Amino acid sequence: xxxxxxxxAIKFQANLFFKYKSYVALSFLGDLAIPIIINVLFIVxxxxxxxxxxxxxxxxxxxxxxxxxxxxxxxxENRISYDIRSYQLAYKLLSPISPLRNYIVNDLAIKLVxxxxxxxxxxxxxxxxxxxxxxxxxxxxxxxxxxxxxxxxISFIIGTLSFWLTEIWGISAIKNxxxxxxxxxxxxxxxxxEHVQSIIYKTPFPYISYVPxxxxxxxxTYINAWNTILTGCLWSFALLVLSKVLWNIGIKKYESxxx
Amino acid sequence: MGIKVKNINKKYHYYVxxxxxxxxxxxxxxxxxxxxxxxxGEILGLVxxxxxxxxxxxxMTSGILLPDSGKxxxxxxxxxxxxxxxxxxxxxxxxxxxxxxxxxxIYEISLLYGSMYxxxxxxxxxxxxxxxxxxxxxxxxxxxxxxxxxxxxxMKGEISLAFINNPKVIFLDEPxxxxxxxxxxxxxxxxxxxxxxxxxxxxxTSHNLQDIKDISTNLLIIKEGRVVYLGKIENxxxxxxxxxxxxxxxxxxxxxxxxxxxxxxxxxxDRCHYECNKNDLDQILNELYQISKITELTIExxxxxxxxxxLLERE
Lengths: 259, 315
What we know:
The complex is a heterodimer of chains A (259) and B (315). With 259 residues, chain A is an all-alpha fold. Helix content of chain A is 79%, strand content 0%. Chain A has eleven helices and no strands. In chain B, helix 6 (181-198) links the parallel strand 6 (169-173) and strand 7. Chain A binds chain B through residues 1, 4-5, 7-9, 11-12, 15-16, 19-20, 86-88, 90-91, 93-97, 255-258, and chain B through 12-13, 59, 62-66, 80, 82, 84, 87-88, 90-92, 94, 97, 99, 101, 103-104, 108-109, 111-113, 115-120, 145. Chain A: It comes from Clostridium thermosuccinogenes.
């Protein structure tokens, strides 16, 4: 049963994505091309003087962080919030596929379509030119999976707040800004003062795009990379537990007093 | 089996601003001590004015909203446990809150929803085609984006989707909203036949009394969360002293006598109108014939809508 659903969810999202050709073009421009161009100009023009990175290296860094940020982040919180407030959640509660699985599968399906369309070519070209080892690719893939788990959990936690709050768009907007800044997507984290860096490294945000990027760019020794991945795993687990607990409490409230 | 509801209550809270930084919590009893059964093969029509508690009852019986007290069983199960079997057997349609994606076609959406129930592509397409025939929906509309369909065409899509899993228990909130007469009639026939053929239990709320009259086995009238009437539709007239209306023409010289005998009679030009109980009909007709010859006699039972309205006003 689930295999049929997964297959149809991917097909559904692919059909939806390619329905409007202008959406595909705008999605590429808005999600990837324009942020990359702005980031490259910003880093090259403002902060490259203080870095040991060459300009090609900076371009690769920016492309990678932006690609990984788009792959691992989701705006699922807005759909959850809409469903809670509009009673669409009622349909999902009575569906054989649990709401949680429904959200994640549909979101991953659209991610898969976008990844295969836009992102994989970037990653393949970079991996080829950077002469990345198989071990590095393996470590990168694992770190991307952890990044996805962290990104989805944070989004899910914010979406779940809709059980108590009328609007979550403000929190969602803050989340996007904080994560973009502290995940190293807007600027590389190493340009920050050391004490600020040490604080940011203690949060889950760098695992969303900075860690996978730095692993792929070979800035970690294998042992160091495994240690970083292990910490990411702990963050991922903690956020998953928190999101599940919040969801269960929220559903009880939804079932007892409605919205 | 079927649906068994015993003494359910539901209270909602809301806030009222009592100052710039102050608000007061207040409560409203949405449902008060409601009990009913819907056996297999039966359709319960749920009627009441806006805000009477109909949708709250539907939400509680379908396992979406917990009652404060009381007990609900759907096919022998607690709906709030939401077991796999319960979810496979149940379907919900909230008429004003559809689940059709505006950018996709009914076919595409059905394939996704049907696969949640483990149905194969051919089975899903067969069911959707079958439903579109029953609902008088042109097949080419199944391939169009639902945003370009009319309200009625979208509602037919919602109904097709609601029955894709061959449910045994169905909760329908305003299922004929926006439909033309022919389509509403088709849906009523479909629901009646589906219920009989599949031994299903249906709870239906509708402001369209033709829906209720044509297909409901039992009627539940709700006012401010309380049960005003629960029983067979055909027994509803028994709730009224005067449940039939006689209209006739009588010789004008006999009118005075007639008015003495029946003080509540209304005379409008040549026509006399008198409301009485169905059980007294024979006796009254005998009395009338003894007074004089009556012509152009018509006997009308009270309209369902009038009876519901009177019951709601009376309580």
